[in-house]
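haha ok so turns out i had the wrong file open the whole time. this is the CORRECT one, sorry everyone. sequence first:
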Amino acid sequence: MDQVLTAQRAVPGASSLGGPLRYGNVVILWLRCEQDALNKRLDGRVDSMVAQGLLPEIRAFYEQHVKPYKNHDYHQGILQSIGFKEFVKYLERYDAEQDQLLLQHLTATTDSAEQPDGLAALGVCLDYLKLVTRRYARRQQQWIKNRFLGTLDRDVPPIYALDTTDVTCWNAQVTDRAVAIIDAVLGDRMPPQEPVARSANTASARLSKEGFFECAVCRRVIIGEYQWQLHLRSNKHRKVAKRNAAATVGGDAKKPVASVVDAAPDT
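then structure:
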């Protein structure tokens, strides 16, 4: 593997993360919108998921794959997925029958003065799901900026931003512009709009420092110095470390130490 990476990095246009683009006529179309509009869409998506059966779905998963077992770890595997772990406290306290009463209340066309038991608890879970969904969307945007726009030494495709804020203008703002960009690229012409500008930043520079780090606390392998530092500062890592320390007999054992598995030399 080291020989393959070394050969890739020696090709013109390569960087420490690997070789150049395999194809020359590649572009990225980045659908973007104003943050307030995006937040409203994400919140609406959660409400739509509830209306389409989210609660019965996670109830069935909980009853079959979680409830019969002990020592659940909501920081690993499928149990850490967004859309499930946010409802654990509600699922543990209420049953499927109460789910149906709450769904009837939430989807009723008329307001009811009487609120069923568990409505407040479910509301807290839904608000938390909306929060983590918005947070995840912001991380995705930051990842694109760091990975594609924040470095000048990598051969990355040009990124063209398309504004999706006003969906009533979708054809003019998104579809027509996307088609025009692709037609220009395929015809070896200049696209009708400029790509998003690239500029070097510190976070992206750290992305290029390749290394494979093993976290003995979370039992995960992290690739890259930048991602490794993010992991060490993450709430998930701290929670697992705290839980492991509490489970240690006597409580005075040292926390598991993360170690570097392998680190490729800088190029």
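Confidence is low (pLDDT under 50) at residues 252-267.
again sry for the mixup
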